[in-house]
Structure formats: C-alpha cells, structure tokens
C-alpha cells in the first residue's frame, strides 16, 4: 500500500467476504483459541501461506482487546411508545452499561437516538448477538455502530 493512500474502514458481514479472507480469519482464530502456530493453522485451514500473509495485516475483529470497551449505536426508530425502552431492555439483559442516550425529536414518524454502551472483555463476543436482537425488534428501522474504542 502506498504511503499517500488513505485507509478506509468498513464494517461488513463476514458472510459476504471471499473465501480467501474468511480463511485468513479462521487461521487467526485458530492461532488465538487453540494456541497453535500460524504454520499449523494455515495447514489446518488449507490456504496458501502467500494468501495468509497477503491479507493478515488488514483483518482485525471489530471487537477485540482491551478490558473495557465503549461503542456507540445510532438507531432510527418508529415514533411509538416503548420502542426505545425495548432496545434498552435488551442492552440490560446482556449486562452492559448504558453510558449516554441522546434522543432527537421525531420527524415524519421516525426518531433518532444514539446510545453509548460500555462492556467488558468477557462480554465482547455477545455484542454481535445483542445488536442482531435489537435490529429485529419491531420499530427499529436502522441500526449502525458509529464508533468504538
């Protein structure tokens, strides 16, 4: 990658990634979880070393590392009583702390809210499931993770 080339980051569903990228993710997971060498993991997954080393530095899980993690979720919600409360219930069920809630006045029947949520390292893997539950709620029109640290 050239020095002047600006990096851009996207959050994508792993299912749409090409097999080679998914294989690199599998190798990284094996190295982390099974504590085996990269060479052993590459052989186990069945990809070439060149493919692994071509992509390895460009793939990182969205939720990784750190003791505490804070992320913000932007929501577009139907303007009906109780919808935001159901979203907050799901966050609470997952034992995550809500740090801030910013809610705007609804326009054309759609309200917008941004919620900052704090979680701990041992709950990070549950975030994706929580976001999926929220996105499937009646009245949630859009859900976007807009930041994390």
UniProtKB/TrEMBL annotation:
**In which domain of life is the source organism classified?**
Bacteria
Instruction: Give residue ranges for domain ACT.
Output: 72-148
Matching InterPro entries: ACT-like_dom_sf, ACT_dom, UPF0735_ACT_dom-cont
Question: What's the short name of a Pfam family annotated to this entry?
Answer: ACT
Give the protein's recorded name: Chorismate mutase
Provide the organism lineage as a comma list.
Bacteria, Fusobacteriati, Fusobacteriota, Fusobacteriia, Fusobacteriales
């Amino acid at each position: 990658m050239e020095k002047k080339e600006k990096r851009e980051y996207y959050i994508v569903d792993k299912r749409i990634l090409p097999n080679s990228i998914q294989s690199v993710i599998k190798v990284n997971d094996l190295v982390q979880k099974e504590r085996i060498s990269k060479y052993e993991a590459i052989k186990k997954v069945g990809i070439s070393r060149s493919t692994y080393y071509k992509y390895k530095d460009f793939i990182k899980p969205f939720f990784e590392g750190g003791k505490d993690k804070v992320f913000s979720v932007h929501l577009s919600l139907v303007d009906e009583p109780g919808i935001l409360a159901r979203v907050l219930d799901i966050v609470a069920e997952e034992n995550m702390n809500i740090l801030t809630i910013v809610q705007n006045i609804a326009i054309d029947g759609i309200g917008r809210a941004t919620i900052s949520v704090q979680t701990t390292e041992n709950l990070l893997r549950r975030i994706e499931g929580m976001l999926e539950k929220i996105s499937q709620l009646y009245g949630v029109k859009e859900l976007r993770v807009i930041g994390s640290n």
